[in-house]
Amino acid sequence: MQTRITELFGTKYPIIMGAMYWIASPELVAAICNAGGLGLYPVSGDTPEQARNAIRKIKSLTDRPFGVNQMLAFPLAKEKIDIILDEKVPVIEYGLGRPWFIDKVHAYGGKVIAKLSIIKHAVKAEQLGVDAVNLVGFEGAGHPTYVTTMVLIPLARKSVKIPIIASGGISNGRGLAAALALGADGVIMGTRFAVSKESLLNDKWKQRILEATEQDTIYMDTGDPTASMRAFKTKRVHEELKKKLPIFEAMSAALEAKKLLNLSWSQMIRAGLASQGEEGMSVMGRMRFMTSAVRSEEVMIHGNEEVGVLTAGQVVGDIKDIPTCQEIIDRTMAEAEEAFRQMKAQY
Ligand SMILES: Cc1cc2nc3c(=O)[nH]c(=O)nc-3n(C[C@H](O)[C@H](O)[C@H](O)COP(=O)(O)O)c2cc1C
Fold first, then answer.
1. Whose CA is nearest to atom 4 of ligand 1?
2. What is the pTM of this model?
3. Which residue, judged by its Cα, is nearest atom 11 of ligand 1?
4. Ligand 1 neighbourhood includes 42 CB (under 6 angstroms)
5. Alpha-carbon distances, residue 205 vs 233, 245, 267, 337 (angstroms)
6. Is 205 in the pocket of ligand 1 (CB under 6 A)?
7. In testing the pocket of ligand 1, which one of 68, 188, 311 has its CB within 8 Å of the most ligand atoms?
């Protein structure tokens, strides 16, 4: 199946694995690329050195195109973008900020994806010269807004000319076929690949997802779209929804982030001042982002659901097995082709 996304990135299939910090190892990203898709490795929580090592590790595991995801509102974004450019990473996905590096990526033949949830921002990203937009619908894990994929993608099709990637609510071939029918050129799946053999997500979570229904996630609306998120329903989620972010917790999260990223005090202060996102991310938003990011290792890798929340999409209700990435991609393509055949035969 050739689409503008397969042509743009040089992949076999129009299937991309969404960036997932902690659980996306270089091995998981390479497995997706070797299976004909495009894996995105998130470096937002990495030190520059860790980012370079991970990029080199991916290069050693696959000769197919791969991508890296960096949220520009996060500390050390500039330093890591420099490394990404130096390593000539084939695809850069960014979010939460204004990209200053598009020409430099194009100069070595790389491509840039903007990760967004708002049509106005997609139009702006196209004007800035990005190669594709990734629009995340309400159904998805991560930080969508209230607008569903069903509404976002046809609107995006009318609003921009560049290739569109649909994400949020896609976990099978019918989802891929539907996204293409809505006007997308490719899809991102996050939650589906989180429950794959190669994913580092704790086995306890994988089992919980296998037993879940489509009702088992919740949109945690903090009143700030950049800081709201969809999470797997747990006791901790309900507790978090009741409280505002206390200043003590925000400060302890900032200290954890400083340690995680190995930042000096001056780097920490500069990062805080520089991290004003394109979407005008609030101070509270940045603190919440940072809080959830620093606790994620404990939650996702060690399966400790007392200390934080697991982001997950509504497709948890559709996930009933733990296949390899290759199996997920092959099955999704076969189902999509069957869905197209059935539609042609029926209508
Ligand atoms: C466990 C998990 C962790 C995620 N972590 C990140 C992340 O670090 N950065 C990011 O931009 N998106 C993150 N996402 C969102 C995905 O990249 C993607 O946008 C989303 O999962 C798509 O919706 P879906 O889950 O319905 O497929 C994460 C998703 C999951 C399931």
1. 20
2. 0.91
3. 19
4. yes
5. 12, 25, 35, 31
6. no
7. 311
pLDDT in tens, 267-295: 767 666 665 544 555 665 666 666 666 67
Distance between CA atoms of 294 and 308, rounded to whole angstroms?
9
Q: Phi/psi at 279 (nearest 5 deg)?
A: -85, 15
In the chain, where the domains are located = 4-203+321-346, 217-301
SS3 282: coil
Task: Report CA(189)–ligand 1 centroid distance (Å).
Answer: 8
Neighbour-count burial for 97-133, b at 16+ CB within 10 Å, e otherwise: bebebbebbeeeebbbbbbbbbbebbebbbeeebbbb
Angle at CA of residue 241, ends 96 and 306, nearest 5°: 95
Q: How confident is the model over 173-197, as pLDDT tens digits?
A: 999 999 999 999 999 999 999 999 9
| Pocket flag, ligand 1, residue 176 (CB < 6 Å) | no
> Does ligand 1 lie within 6 Å of residue 139's CB atom?
yes
> How is domain 4-203+321-346 classified at the CATH fold level?
TIM Barrel (3.20.20)
CA–centroid distance, residue 105 to ligand 1 (Å): 24
Provide the residue type at 290 as one letter: M
Return the SS3 of 120: helix
List the residue whose alpha carbon is closest to atom 3 of ligand 1.
20
Q: What is the CA radius of gyration of the chain?
A: 19
The more confident residue out of 228 and 169 is: 169
Q: Is 313 close to ligand 1, i.e. is its CB under 6 Å away?
A: yes
Ligand 1: residue whose CA is nearest its atom 10: 19
Q: Is 141 in the pocket of ligand 1 (CB under 6 A)?
A: yes
